[in-house]
Amino acid sequence: MTQPLNAETSPSSLSLPDTALVSELITLRDYLRWVSSEFYLAGLYYGHGTESAWDEAVALCLGALHLPWNVDPGVQDARLLPMERERIVALTRERITTRRPLPYLLGEAFFAGYPFNVDERVLIPRSPMAELIEDGFAAWFPEEPPERVLDLCTGSGCIGIATALYLPTCEVTLADISQEALAVARQNITRHDVGERVRAVEADVFSGLEGQRFDVIISNPPYVDKRDLATMPAEFRHEPALALGAGSDGLDIVRRILREARGHLTDEGWLIVEVGNSDRHVEAAFPEVAFMWLEFERGGQGVFALSAAELDAHAASFA
Q1: If pLDDT is split at 50, 70 and 90, which confidence band does 210 have?
Q2: Of the residues 17, 49, 106, 149, which has the fewest C-beta atoms closer than 10 A?
């Protein structure tokens, strides 16, 4: 009986020269099928906005052609220009051979429905907190939206800028220790024309923000523990290590945030922090604190919320 082909035994067509591939693959449908097959054979990791070889192929092809994600499916039968075909083939080769995440190859990632510039100076946006922003933080501010928001450890600025876009009366501060990350954040401030309400400042957690108070402090800080950092797929090694690792239990920065946040919150303010799968370390480090762990319709875990009053009540634990 003939054995079915699999990723270990099937040959990759990337052994062919680009000219042969471009001459045989003509339509967008051709490329969607070919790219997804090559990604499957390569055993890539999908953790930067897609969940499968097919999803990644769709994102690559549409991104290469500057088409929106919700384009009419009829476009699949469109014939592509030679230069368009060459670009898709080149991107596919680079994605497979370098393991660079696709958003870095395209220079763009989407967050809360908006596009943001990204490169290796910043993490690729993928936080489930997009849902909180799209909802205008209504769970905590049901009547009036927050007036001042701090996006701490901002990276590309996607969290804070998306907040400004969804809440047109809100003033937002983007804070990061990395000047390289802040340069990308400022590009995104310009891209979305929110410079009148959004500013980017250098800060080592709260050092650099003295005397400032906010209704919401929202943060996706470094939180990967030492063990997870050592075993992450190759794709993550292209992201800045400064934005990922945070000590043996991943809480080096989180502890500082918990200790210092109250001094920068209004009395009715809220702290919202993503810690991913380091949520177990948070629970172990502060067993006496009843963290509010948030649930998300589109998936995601490890985001807690604490009110200013709760930070006051547990100040001794966080000291």
Answers
A1: very high
A2: 17
Structure tokens at 287: 């067993």
Maximum CA extent, the chain: 75
Q: Which distant-in-sequence residues (6+ apart) come within 8 Å of 250 by Cβ?
A: 222, 223, 224, 225, 226, 228, 275, 278, 281
Task: Dump pLDDT digits (tens) for 43-59.
Answer: 999 989 899 999 999 99
Q: Backbone phi, then psi, for 137, in 5-degree steps?
A: 55, 35
The model's pLDDT over 217-230, given as tens digits with 9 standing for 90+, comes to: 999 999 888 888 88
Residue with tokens 């709760």: 310
Q: Which of helix, strand or coil describes residue 247?
A: coil
Beta-carbon neighbour count of residue 61 at 10 Å? 25
- The CA distance from 257 to 226, in Å, is 19
Asked whether 61 and 28 are in contact (CB, 8 A), the reply is yes
SS3 (DSSP) at 55: helix
pTM of the model: 0.91
The pLDDT, as a whole number, for residue 11 is 80
Q: How far apart are CA 267 and CA 271, in angstroms?
A: 11
